[in-house]
Amino acid sequence: MGNLLSFTNNDDNSTLSNTSGSFLQSGIPSKAASLRCEARQLMFEAKAASQQSQYEYHYGNKSQAKVLSTKKNHLYKQMGEKNQQAARLIFEHFNRDRSYNVIDLHGLYVNEALEYLEHRLAICRSENILKLTVITGMGNNSPNKIAKIKPQVEKFVRENCLKVTGYSGHIEIDLSTNNEPTAGSYQNTNGCIIL
């Protein structure tokens, strides 16, 4: 049996485990998991370069501080590119057999999930799709089983005055109305209004 390692990043609230060298997170393609790990490593390197840069600056070695600061920026850029590639693979994996009126945000970081949701809403509106089902999950794969995506999606729909019905692992957005802000713009399955 292989080693079991766990990596958790408080910035993105995801967990990856390594068993026999293969990274897995609830159905996420191994290439995407590998890209996430590469991004995480780049983040650690960027943070180290930043700390070293601050140290060098503090002790008067400003040219070395500048070199390290430039390195930090380059590492963060690479990290963003790796995460973007991973997000694309994850999104395509979970949505490959879905129609445009359903979007699955499993496996994405919160900011990525919101970007994909905004893009899908634009498609739905341009195609006159009247209802969008947004699968957010319940947080079963998040640290401490606390949902990260769903609360932010709910906040997004409230801020954009979208009429929504909430369920335990998904929400349904009604695109058939003008979506003017009203007291009842968000209802859960019990008919309770959530403001």
TrEMBL record:
Pfam hit, one: DUF1771
Record-linked SUPFAM superfamilies: SMR domain-like
Domain Smr as annotated: residue spans: 103-167
Protein name: Smr domain-containing protein
Native organism: Adineta steineri
